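**User:** You know discrete backbone vocabularies at least as well as I do. Would you mind producing a protein record, from residues through to fold? Write it directly below this note and I will take it from there.

**Assistant:**
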Amino acid sequence: MSQACPSLLSNGICESPSCSYRHDVSSCELCNRVFASPAEYTTHAATKQHLNKVQGEFGAMLYCTLCEKYVSGMKNWVQHVASGRHASIAAERGLRPDVDPEEPESIPGHTLCSTCNSHIPDRNWPRHHLTPKHKDREQFISFRSALDEAEKDKHGISVSGNFDFGIVDGPAAKSGITIRPTIHNATPASKVALVSMTLASDKGSRTQSPFSVPPTAPNLAIGYNSTYAFTVTLRQAYNGREENRLEILFEDVQLKTRFIIARILRVNVGNRADHELLRPLAPYVPRKRTARQPEAKIVEGVLPPSLKAIPYIVPLPEAPIPHNLAAALSTGSTTSIVADVRRLYLPPVLDSKSYARHFKHLLWIEEFRMDRDLEHYDISNAKLTAHNHFYLLDVPGLAEKRPSVLVGDRILVQKRGATLGHWFEGGVHFVRKEEVGLRFNASFRMTSPADRFNVRFKLSRYPLRRQHLAMDTAFSEARVLFPLPLHVPAGSYPTPASARLTVFNPLIATNAPQLQAVVSIVKRPPGSVPFVIFGPPGTGKTVTMVEAIRQVLAADPHARILACAPSNSAADLIAHRLTALGPDALFRFYAPSRSKEQVALELREYTHARPDGHFSVPPLARMKRFRVVVATCVSASVVSGIGIPRGHYSHIFCDEAGQATEPEIMIAIKTMADSRTNVMLSGDPKQLGPIIRSAVARELGLETSYIERLMQREIYDEKTGYGASVVKLTKNFRSHAAILAFPNTRFYKGELQACATARVTDALLGAPLLPTAAFPIVFHALAGRDAREAASPSFFNIDEISQVKAYIQALRADRRFRVTDDDIGVIAPYHAQCLKIRAVLRAVADGVKVGSVEEFQGQERRVIIISTVRSSREFVAYDLRHTLGFVANPRRFNVAVTRAQALLIVVGDPAVLALDPLWRAFLNYVHARGGWTGPPPTWDPRAAVEEAGGYDRAVREAAQRDMNAFTRRMEALTIAGVEAAGAGEDGDDDTNVDRPWQDVE
């Protein structure tokens, strides 16, 4: 290779026409490396090694010489150089965008704080040294210095031995294990006395310690070249990790000075085999997020025939993200972006006139984030296998929709070493468990089976475009979008007594709230405000909706119903319960991307397929004759798309409405409703809402579902609106009363009634694993450790995994209380934890479902085991959000604990969970009723819970007191502290790894 052009490397420009040097190169002067192309440099610039050098070379405030702009922090720098604005400025100037950040000697209006390594605006400088963040940073530096000093051997005294007990099995830890470290004096003629040995908590106060050291003789002399052996004993009855600090105080008798040598004691009581199997295969290194270079040329692929299976006559809008909005979303913190979007793009007031503009922008914001998140799944060294007309591509995680790939999607591939920016598009023709079948343009060639490719997953925009189409429609009735009291007719609402319905489901007749909901729906005049069936867990909201559909059809022979749900599974449940209508009245629509194997046999006669096997729709005339059409919220666009006129459906029902975004719900409503259409929603705004990937979109309200927004309005008060606009179902047919009691009080005002069959709910009372025979909840206190590995930011906790496995083995082995795999569900908030739990269960109970909270919403099991995962002891280093993560979410908590019918087991670290007031209240509830096992609480479980929180602050303060005392004993520094480094606004990059992809077709 010829040398790189010196001019090009110094200023990016070479004006000599006769220059013989290479010009297609980039260099990194920091790392002293030259790269063959800007793309290779971009990849290098995101590596940890390069970023570390940049951080060491430059401060927290960075400067872009191209854009002449200051950027705060490396994370924002990476986003900045990937932005379209940066690329366009580089193109305008004829320069490459791959520039290194610079830190000028001075930033106008700023002063560098060396302690915080931050440029502080001059207006804030006089107060900066008094801020908590600066003081915390000073304290932390002081403490780390004192601790480092304490762990050194000094004054000729050395303390030897292995103070890490390692992994110890439960019986051995319970009987006790002793180690014998030694103290040695290597200084001639010195006179040193051992004054004391004490144990001190390293992370705040504790009620007890499994470690113990025997008392020593007062001022025990340790002469020159002598060795003194002492013992440290471990005795612990429970599994889990423990850590403490041993402080050995010495006195130099001649100098009359004292000094400390400290050692950290550690133990992990647990299953060694599980730890060996599940331990991280590689240390966690944050994933290198390299900005995708734009595709300069894409050769269109061959798309599957399923994309033409539906005879659409209404074109979809392209609705691309506006360039200026995309640029605004590219840089800055979540807080600053939210402020800019509110100020520049969103209407000041959300009403019927501004509704479409508001939600279209939220859709674009979410699309921007979804597209970026797909980059996580890009494959850099993929193999393609030729098979007939197709090329097979292995996609790790495909079976779990990580990434989500459907028939009709597009995947880009680029041969390694090919022209930069040149890509081939592959149309996805079929999707198997771990592979997809692609078809490319005829010009695509593989020269050898050894060829390797870069792969990019492209976001399917069809669902988003259908939502934009709905937003663009003229329907904007206030009685549907923003209902007011004036939209509700005066007078009393119809009651079951006055209606005298003959119910199809006899159970409805004995359930007053369900019957009232059905009557209110059937007797509503056309053009009423939307009606809400508020259905807490296990109260039968889908049963109620199905009964209402059948009653509407029976009461009005001209009624036509469009029934929707956010997912195919929820839509299938509606269709299953309506099959009595027969295939002439009921039609279940599936997107052509769905395969027949994914559809239950009993529903296939209610569908329509083309001769090639793809799902479709029958002729328009027949479609109009169906009395009920069932589809997912997104697929509901089919009816307007094929030409069914607005107003054809007298009623639009949406089940599980809380799990869909408002634009998804509006696909059916805004495209098909007229002034007489009645809308019915069922759901529970106290459970999980829709899956939103963008922190900006969540902050701006996209995570608030339509049903939740309605229930915040005056007319949907559960008391005053009862029967007229809303009915709250109150009879729970799922859970044992003790399992229901806590969420009932916390989320549902104590109004739920436990009505489930005792044969189911009492089935495991008296089981050996229950601490109290009559109380079917177990909280297993376990101090583990959350960990990450390789490039995945998702957490896992081996200690909890081992305990979950032990519980499942005990349940499966019990011959008196028989439990099958299908009876058990395991819920964990992190994807990595789910994967590892499945791994250890393959040889134990392979049929147990393991999944996230989102995957269990709407489901139930006789036994639910929850692994909370988070067990960080870095209370002093992080805020509550960082320490608890997903666990500190009331809706996730509510869904998780309400899935169990007969037995609920929660495995977690109480010291971490109790930082959150909701979790602390739950732990107090379980402890008071005798469901606690493991080490006792470190707080008073009888004390009233402070709902305002602050427990994390109290723990940090206790840790600070410990550190202060320690540094005073070290006589080195006078203060100690903690670096309060919260997760920050941009932590969303990590959390989306564990946020599932919504199943939309």
User: Anything to note?
Assistant: Confidence is low (pLDDT under 50) at residues 6-17, 54-59, 971-987. The chain is about 30% helix and 20% strand.
